[in-house]
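Supplementary Note 3. Input sequence used for the single-chain structure prediction.
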Amino acid sequence: MSTDQTSYAPMVAQIKQIPAHPLCPITAAEIEQSTRLIRSLYPAKTDFAFKVITLEEPEKAHLVPYLDAEHSGGRLPHIDRKTLVCYYLRNTDKFHEAVVNLSQQRVESNVRLGPSVHGPGDWEEIVLVEKIALEDEGVKAEIAKLGLPKGTAVLSDPWIYGSDGINDDRRMYQCFLYMRDPNDPSNMDSNHYAFPLAISPVVDCVDLKVIRIDMCPTGADHASQEPQASWIPPPNEYTPEHQNLRTDLKPLNVVQPEGASFRVTKVGETGEIIEWQKWSFRVGYNQREGMVLYDVS
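The predicted structure, written as discrete structure tokens, is reproduced below.
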């Protein structure tokens, strides 16, 4: 991991809070506290794009004694509550990774990562990239060459750009274009993947503009060609109204008259313990692994 900047927040007045279990997912209030403490490092009008705010799990050396005491009914040692925060200074390539100590109300570390290290995409950014690609005049001109039927709906599917290391370390999106069935363009559930277009704009996320338009190969080799009017394939829809479903199946009912064989117990605002058969474990979530099982016994 490359770094070129480190800064720390000064201590601020602590906010009285009820300690959460060290493995409970973070709460909405903790997310707000984390962003407030990060913002305190910068001038008031600085604009941020927060990418990840998640639990910074305690080190094993601290967590094991805590769990041992918890299982034995002993006195619980204190573990500071921390979050991992990844963010950009908006419309720049300045991507940061910070650890925020919520128990002490301070930023423990704040590191700007190297120029070739990029954060994940998010819904807000993806929607913006779609708009930029479809409103670009160069892209519109290429689409016009296809001679699509009037009223055809063209869609953009942005993907974070995978660098091959040749003058492309900047944060970019490769956009793949599709269209809905020209005979049913208002159907929001249409399978547009059945109608791929060869036009593929590349959007720079710092300058927020299309920097080039690639043409995808459409044949048996890697050769590409300029857009031109071509044959439109038949639709291939998956929605129920487009299917001839079987009607000879008998009902299947799954019932548990005595209830479920597992039990879910809420712990605090976000924690859950699941007990099933001889097993017991905590359930958490984060942006990388999704569901996480803790303290399985």
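Confidence is low (pLDDT under 50) at residues 1-7, 9-17. The chain has four helices and 13 strands.
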